[in-house]
Design a protein that fits this description.
With 231 residues, this protein is mostly helical. The protein has two domains: 175 residues, no CATH class; 54 residues. Helix content is 67%, strand content 3%. A two-stranded antiparallel ribbon has the order 1-2. The radius of gyration is 21 Å and the shape is globular. The chain starts with a helix and ends in a 6-residue tail after the last helix.
Length: 231
């Protein structure tokens, strides 16, 4: 009886979580990135000196400071609105992941570090300095990344425009395909690889190469067997 009650409670929480669990993440992220984007918009179209002096990672380092300023300003504003509505949630959440990772690499990541313990000194809100070396202040953007990931993997939940479109206007006769285990792991490795390649390059490259290799092998194996990557 206890196990049955437990199963009923967890089933109820799972069902209600499909409506509510992601709503808080969407609301907070939308507020934070709208505030950041609106602040940039209010500052004008010209990139301020503190922004222009940043060393942005490839390929953003190839662009002018004003172009990067325009892209991040409108990227944050548009993504904030879309995430709040739950519209193309995964795409805009991934866009926010890229914006956040680039910001961490350019502004919040330590200038140098010799050990994981030294790197972890940068898990702070204030600028941590040690012997004149900047040790980082990536606590808040790292929390943003942890909040963005569920939106990439699970979408916006049932209280979203995405779910409304899926249930009202998408042909119901067409079943949604599910990815194979290898395909799912490859996608997860790709997302995590993009998230880490500018911060921990060796790990990021390993994840990207591993995910693409696994996906290519699965495509080859499925083609040999005459089946699809999704089932």
């Amino acid at each position: 009886m206890i196990f049955r009650l437990y199963d009923q409670i967890t089933a109820g929480l799972t069902a209600s979580g499909q409506w509510l669990a992601l709503l808080g993440l969407r609301g907070l992220l939308a507020y934070e990135f709208w505030t950041a984007g609106y602040g940039k918009l209010s500052a004008g179209s010209e990139a301020p000196r503190w922004f222009a002096n940043q060393d942005f990672v490839f390929p953003f380092g190839l662009l002018s400071a004003n172009t990067n300023w325009f892209m991040v300003t409108w990227g944050e504003l548009l993504a904030a609105v879309a995430v709040a509505l739950g519209l193309f949630t995964r795409f805009f959440a991934f866009s926010l992941l890229v914006i956040t990772v680039v910001a961490i690499a350019a502004v919040h990541w330590p200038a140098s570090w010799d050990s994981l313990g030294q790197l972890w000194e940068g898990y702070s809100v204030s600028r941590v300095m040690d012997d004149g070396e900047f040790r980082g202040n990536f606590r808040i953007p790292l929390l943003f990344l942890a909040m963005i990931l569920p939106l990439i993997f699970f979408g916006g939940g049932k209280l979203s425009v995405d779910h409304l479109v899926a249930t009202r206007w998408r042909p119901q006769a067409q079943a949604t395909p599910s990815a194979t285990n290898v395909g799912a792991l490859a996608l997860a490795g790709f997302v995590l690889g993009v998230m880490t390649i500018y911060l921990l390059p060796l790990l990021g490259v390993a994840l990207l190469v591993g995910s693409l290799t696994a996906l290519a092998y699965e495509v080859y194996k499925r083609s040999q067997a005459g089946t699809s990557l999704v089932s």
